[in-house]
Each structure stands twice: as structure tokens, then as C-alpha cells.
Task: structure prediction
Amino acid sequence: MNSINHQFVLAALERRSLRFRRGSGNSDPSPMTMDETGTVELRCPEEDTADEQSRLRREELQAVSGESEEILKVHGVAPGTKAEGITRLLYENANGINCKWSNNWKLNKARELHGELEADIVAYNEHRLNMKHKRNSIGFSRLFGGGEAEVRSVVAHNVHEDIGKVQEGGTSMLMFGPLIEYLDMSEGGKDESGLGRWVVMTLKGGDTTTTRIVCGYNPCGNDKPDSGTVYQQHRRFLITKENSLECPRVRFREDLVKTLKKWRQQGDKLIVCLDANENIYRKSLGKALTDADGLDMKEVVGNFTGRQISATYFRGQSPIDGIWSTSDVTITGACIMPAGFGIGDHRLFVIDIATDSLIGLQPMKIVRPKAWRLNNKIPGAASAYRDRLERLLLKHRIIERMGAAHEGSKDNQEAETRMNKIDKESGQYMLNAEKKCRKIKSGRIPFSPESAVWIRRCQVYRSIIRFHEGKIRNRGNLKRTAHRCGIREPLQLPLEEVYARLQVCREQCEYFQTQGHKYRRKHLQNRLRHARDEEDDEAEKAILAIIMRERDRARWRQLNFAMGWKWGRSVQMVQVEQEDSTIQEFTGQEEVHEAIWSNIHQKRFYLAEQAPICSNLLRGEFGYNADTESARQVLSGAYNPTHPIDEATKELFDTVAAIRQKVEKDSISTIIKHGDWSNFWRKPNENTSSSRSGRHFGHYIAGASSELISHFHAVKTSIVLSRGISLERWAQGLSVMIKKVQGCSLVSKLRSILLMEADFNCANKLLYGIRMLNNVRRHELMPEEIFSEKNRMADDGTLAKTLFYDLVRQSRRPAGLSSVDADNCYDRIAHAIASLVCQAFGVPQEAVGSMLQTIQEMKFFLRTAYGDSTSAAGSHIEVKTQGLCQGNGAAPAGW
Result:
């Protein structure tokens, strides 16, 4: 056995352990069988290389047959899908990790296992890295990160010797996802000696529950003083630093047990993952951990399964690795995977722990918005969306019914009811067209003709297995699909051979998952060359766009990853400053929502009530929308107040009257043509968030290429504006709470962005941002400081400020420069004043009333880490919400 190469045996063990990977379709799909004598019977999946593959597989299985049969099995029950409220811990001796991203099979496999097993905590010892070396500059958080889950890591090595890039020993731990919220980095860390003997992560829950998770490595004895082994590193440290000849293994045991006892006396819960390098049941370290008069910990896997574990090193005869926990930690699952399943030469431990026993409560699960199926960068999806929506609009005569509602309604109330009914129905057609426009695929394997072959063959072999299980009845479709993939007589293949062929296809898919990008680039270049040869300009343009988009996406992912930018988390809890300067914390969905509504919405959107025109006397004369006789007198310049008014309001009235003398009444058209609509929607960014209803920007961008769909949207919006009514859907805003300062949860420091309906915002931008401002420019009423100069960037302003300071300093003149922010400026705009100003610039009163009525009736829903709220905050009966709202397309022009 000693003559067989170490890596060769590990490779053979890895292949055998693949049957336990998720998605294998069978508990033992291996086509290879071995009798009690170790004889291997092999069926080869490919006829053209049968002899060579048979020989290699026999050699591999013969190498495996010399190992203990126990290490080839799962000790316990193999882990399934992680249940709700469970924290999953993985532990393994990694036997070395390369600190690089490319050509790193261990890293790729580790990340696959983390995702497949849904790991929350991962402990690796013996990473064999000198983290101070310049070539090991990539931290573990960046090395194992890159997915959606946030990552934290603790990595330790012997800091007293700078041996080189590779240094024997080392311990590390990783934590993923929502548990990070409870990670106390100040209480965690590394072995105080600096030898990297163990690392610890500390979780602190809301009810003073503290749990410490430890990963340690006990050095293996070695009698070569000049070697770089962990044992000799520790021995040199003890001799030179402490003048001690004590055995490093004894010191490790004493120091670890002493530290654990100190934590236990504080009432902390403990979980310890160790490579003890000795029998964990018979030797001193394991006995010290389980001593009933001491730590009184339990060896987790043996205690859970009811039988002691066997060898954990692939060539060993006794268990030298283990996980121990105190009795107050609730274990819900524990097993040891077969040798070769993980990334090292020791077996992988998988432990499921009740989360509430770790932190005293269940961590909140962040609710993420649903993905959009409609993507206009995929031509087929946009085309399918337009075709289906056009058919539905014509079939149900939506445009004709809108015209009938406009012309046949007796009053605005009837028209509003009928238009809301049509809007709700047409919205269902839009969402249905999006649902049917394409299928969402995982995208884990970059598409290329080479990868597509193996993906389709995997699908066919899985279908054959389902056929044998009686789940597929249509033999003809299955046979035709198999023949297209080059699989002859698929239903005649023995089930064992199907599994063998499926395994080969899976291995190829795994290869393309990591190496498929180069085949993808090659495929795109071939298609581009073909389009140029055929002089197909449209195809060439589309392919170039795909190439540039994928190149830019990869480049920015690398930059963001390398720069270590940390995105702010969703709001899970808020803090409110009380009158006595104390801070009150609110947690839980209902408490957080109520705190935000009471401290933001119910204050911010009533700031306009401070304006004099909102006082009792003027409120009675002008109302909220300035659609009264007094408002018409102000616009004509004939208003004569019967009571005193403040000077500022009087100046505003005089200015409004002067503007009306220059600008013709109702000079801005409220009719939006389909050309105006389609031209507007060719420019916006599709990724912009909007709308609680699900009618996002992509719907309108896709519809802009259809004359029928653009006409439908334009007609609906024009009817609403010309009649001065409001759609119920428009009056439902979604407030997204964003942290201004990373780590600060004060409600006063949260930025609230109101997501309004996309078509409502489009109407406002067309009417106010374009048509009204064009009127202002036409009459030369636009101040020169409004808007930025063309061909200028923000950097130019910064440079100008720097030059100003230089000139002032050199000339020794007293000067000052002030940057002034108008606090909550949009939210302080009184609707009566806004209506008067907009009417003065030529906007019809009906259109102004439509926008202001929508804001006054607005229901403010919330989007936090708990998802989109089902309840909302709105106006009081006696006082309506005002302001123009952050996120309203009319707000910049209105301000």
C-alpha cells in the first residue's frame, strides 16, 4: 500500500465518494462492484476507449480496496436539505489550501461543497499557509466569498517563524450568511501564543446567550529538530521564548483545556473541532474534554449515532479527529462523510445544530425580491413578451374599452372606477406575458456548443433513469431525444451502465462549470466571424453587444471583489433617539415597520403643513390643490385678501401672477402620443427598481418597440391626466429603507427612497420635466444656475473648489465657501403653492390635480429585510400627506 501514490489514492477515494453528492439520483449509482476478495467488476461507458478506462478504473479501485471499508461509508445519515432554524457546521483537515483564485481545484471544490451542503460555519485546520507572506495576500473572506452570502473569517498561523509561503499547520474558520449578525469579533480571535494552535468565533444572542466555536490542531510528534513540522515549530518557540523543554502536545492540551474551562465558568456554550493526532477515545486530550468532573463535553457524532466513530484519516486505523460540544448545545444531525468527499485526506464532519441553542433565538431570514423573467437584453424574451401582450390586448379589446370609459362616463368618479378596473385587468395581462416570455436558468455553466453536448446528455440519462422508475411513459420522445444526442438504443442500456455514463457526463459538466468561460469566448468569436462573413450587420451588432456586456460584467466583478466593497445590509432593526438622549432599539417586523412609519412617514410628509398657505384661513380659500376661485384670482392677478397674509406668501402670489401674464394658460398639452411614449422608454436603465405592482421598467422598455403597446400605455395615461383622476395603483408607493452610514441603524440616518409606479413617473417626467421646463426656457424664465453645464463632470466642480482655495491662500484674502443642503426640500413643498406655480407655467389644473391627488392618497408600503410589507401608512382623515416625494419624476422640476 505504501508504494501507491498519495494523490492517486485520494483521487480514487474522491470518485467513489461522489455517489453521496447531492443530485446523484441514487444512493449508490456506481457502475463498479467489488466482492469480498477485492475483485472489481467494471462496465465501461464508452466503447471506443473501453480497454484503457477499464484498466484505469481497476487500478483505482484496487488502490481503494486496501483501505478500511469503514472510511468508504457515511458514519450516520448523509445530510439532506438543511431545515429551517438549523445551523450547519462543516469541519475538516484541509491538508493544505492554495491562496490563489485560478487553477485551484481545492478552492473550487470547497466552494461547491459549501453551497451544496448549505454551510453556515466551516472549520479547516492545517491550511499550511503563512498569511504574512506577500503571495498569500488574499484573505479567506475574499478567497471563499463571491456569492450572495456575506463571509467572515478568522485565520491563524505561527507568526514567530517566517518560513516561506507554505508553513505547516494553521487553523481557520469561516462564517456565512445571517449568523454574522450575531458574531462578536472582539470576543473571537486566535490562540494568544501566536502559534496558530486554534481559532475561535463567538456568537452572542439577544438573551445574553454566548457560544464559542473553536477549531484547533494538536501537533503530531516529530523527532527532527531542524524540520518545519508543527511540532518542531512549537518546540523551538517554547525553548527560545519560554526556556521550556515541555512537550508541545502536552502544552497544547493544558492551554486549550484551561481556556475552555475559563469560558465554561463564564456560562458560555462550547463547540470544539479538533485534529487531535491521537485516538480521541483512549488518549488524554479526548478524555480531558469529556471528563465528567471537568468540561463534561460530548463527542458529537458518536453520541448522536450511538456508536463510536472509526478512522478519520484515510490511511489511519483509529479516530484522530472529532467535534465536541457541551450539553446545552442541541444537535439535530451528525455524520462523517467517506474519505475523498471533502478537500483533504481526512474525512469531512457535517453537524446540524439548532440555531436557537447557539444564539437564544432564530436568526431572521432576509426576504429577497423575486427575479424578473423579462430581460430586454435577451432579444427572444422581449419579443415573446411583446407578441403575447399584443394578442391579449387585441383579444380583450382593452384600448376600445378605455375609449368607451372616457367618452361614456357621466362624471370623473365613474371614469375613475372604470379606468381602475381596466388598469387592473391589463396589469394581469402584462404579468402573464412576462411569466411566459422565458425560462430562468441557473447559468452555472457558461453556454458553448461543447458544454451543451454534455448538459443534454446528462438530461437524457436522467430521463432514462426516470423511465426505469416508471415516471416517464412516452418512450418515443425519449428515444428521439436520445438519438439526437448520439445515444443509441437508450432503453436497452442496463441501469448500472446508465449511472456510469451519467457520472462521466457530470464530471464533464463540472469541468465546464469552472473552465467553460474560455469555450464561451471561443464560441462568441466564432459566431462573430460567421456574421461578418455573411455580412449580417444586425447579428454582428448583437454578438458584439453580448461580448462587451459579458466582458464588462466580469471586469467589474473582479474590481468590486478586489476592492472589498461591502454593500449595506437590509434594515433588520432600527434605533430611535428619545427625548432624554437615550437610544431605543426596535426589532421584529411589526416593531421595525411601526418605528419607521411613526418617525419618518408620519413626520416627513407633513412638513409642508408649516407653510403659511396651509394655515386655517388660507387652507379654506385654496384647499390642497389650489382649484378654487381664490386660486384663479391669484393667477389672474385679481386676488384681494380679506385678512392679513405674510410677506413671503404675498410675494409668491405676485410672482405667480406675473408668470401667468407671460405664459399662456393651459399651453402644455396633456395628450401623450405613442411616439412620445416609445421615445421616452428607449433611454431608461432597465435595472432601475420601481413599482409594488410588479410592472417594472422592463415592461415599458419592451413595449416601446411595439406601436400597439405604446399606444395602449399612452392612451391610458392621457385619459387619466386630462380628466384629473388618479389610478389606485399609482397611489401605492414602496419605500425602500437604505442605510446612509454603514453599521448605523438610527432611523434618522436611514435614507427613504419612494418607488413609484413606472408609468406614473413617466407621465410626470414628460409633463413637468420636459414640457413644462421647455415652456420655462421658451419664455426665458429659467435661472442660469439651474442644471449642470454640458460636457462637465463632478470632478470639474471639485477641481474648481480646490483652485479657489489655492487662489485665496496665495492672495491672502479672507473668503469662505459653503456647501448648503436644503433638508427634505422635496417633502416641504406645499401642494397649493406647487399647483399655483405649475398652473402659472401652463400645466392644466386637471393634470396638476391628478399628480397631487395621487400623493395625497398615497399608501406607503415598506421594503426591509422582512420583505415588502402588506400593511401601509397613509394620510390622516383631517390632514393629507404633501410634498413631491423623493423618487417622483416631477419633483426636480417642481422644486
